[in-house]
Design goal:
It contains one helix and two strands, in the order H-E-E. The chain is α+β, with helices and mostly antiparallel strands. The mean pLDDT is 84.
């Protein structure tokens, strides 16, 4: 009985230590956008997303809409 308990404890300890590893960290997102103003209509601006490792993004132009 003692031998089987010792074996179970050793197996459990091995499992616990084997499952402890370094956590993977996600890459840090880098926000980057370029823009181009329409020469004929300066109120028309085109944006291009060149961000890296970003999953989502939203725009806030200060008018209450995003």
């Amino acid at each position: 009985m003692k031998k089987s308990n010792l074996m179970m404890i050793a197996t459990l300890m091995l499992f616990i230590f084997a499952s402890c590893g370094e956590d993977e960290t996600a890459p840090v997102p880098v926000a980057e956008f370029s823009y181009e103003v329409d020469s004929e209509n300066p109120l028309m601006v085109s944006f291009t997303n060149t961000s890296q490792d970003a999953e989502t993004y939203s725009w806030d132009f200060g008018d209450g809409n995003t």
